[in-house]
Amino acid sequence: MSRYRGPRLRIIRRLGELPGFTKKNLNRTNPPGQHGMNTKKPSQYGIRLQEKQKLRYNYGITERQLINYLRQARKIKGSTGEILLQLLEMRLDNIVFRLSLAPTIAAARQLISHGHIKVNNKKVNIPSYQCKPNDIISISEKKHSQELITKFLEITNQVSIPPHLSFNKENLIGKVHSLINREFVGLNLNELLVIEFYSRKL
């Protein structure tokens, strides 16, 4: 399944707030569609599917990518759900978003793909690049890159940066200090339901 490119507010109405997906505000809170007002209780499968979809839409990843991250998380010692979230949070596109260098993860992905972002002073144009503790995130010296990031910083001025990251606005340099703690993941989600959703498929 490819990345979603349709109406974003429709997804927000169905799944709830997804900070990395869109900054648009909702006028209506009921689910989309003809039966949006239907108060029928969702099935257990539906609940697990919804939690899985939150991950996919928020981080902008495909079904195949999510399955690969889950397989990778299972090989690492510890809670599979928390490790899965750490892998997604340490993606370069998400780090750029959490540093407030872009208003959404999709915008961060575009910045990276167009060569505006450096990691440890080397240009990286792969949004899925896995950042590690002590990585330095900086901006290309090109004037266009600097102006673009400054514009995005003005848009996302009120966003708080999680404690595993730091950012110097004067030098436009960010740093990854450690892996993220579960409490600072900026998504309202029960990751155990995602693990349960895939338990019979993997």
Automatic annotation (TrEMBL):
Per its UniProt entry, which superkingdom is the organism in?
A: Eukaryota
Biological process (GO) annotations held by this record are: ribosomal small subunit biogenesis; translation
The regions listed as transmembrane in this protein's record are: none
Q: Which Pfam families match?
A: Ribosomal_S4, S4
Disordered, as annotated region = 22-43
User: Keyword Ribosomal protein, does the record have it?
Assistant: yes
Which GO MF terms are attached to this record? Answer: rRNA binding; structural constituent of ribosome
Q: Where in the cell is it found?
A: Plastid, Chloroplast
Keyword annotations of the record = Chloroplast, Plastid, Ribonucleoprotein, Ribosomal protein, RNA-binding, rRNA-binding
Q: Polar residues: which segments have biased composition?
A: 27-42
Annotated ranges, domain Small ribosomal subunit protein uS4 N-terminal: 3-89
What's a single GO CC term here? chloroplast
Domain (RNA-binding S4) spans 90-154
Q: Which HAMAP family match?
A: Ribosomal_uS4_B
On subunit structure and binding partners, the annotation says: Part of the 30S ribosomal subunit. Contacts protein S5. The interaction surface between S4 and S5 is involved in control of translational fidelity.
The Swiss-Prot or TrEMBL record describes its family as follows:
Belongs to the universal ribosomal protein uS4 family.
Question: What NCBIfam families is this protein classified in?
Answer: PRK05327.1, rpsD_bact
What task does this protein carry out?
A: With S5 and S12 plays an important role in translational accuracy.
Its recorded name reads Small ribosomal subunit protein uS4c
Q: Which organism is it from?
A: Gloeotilopsis sterilis
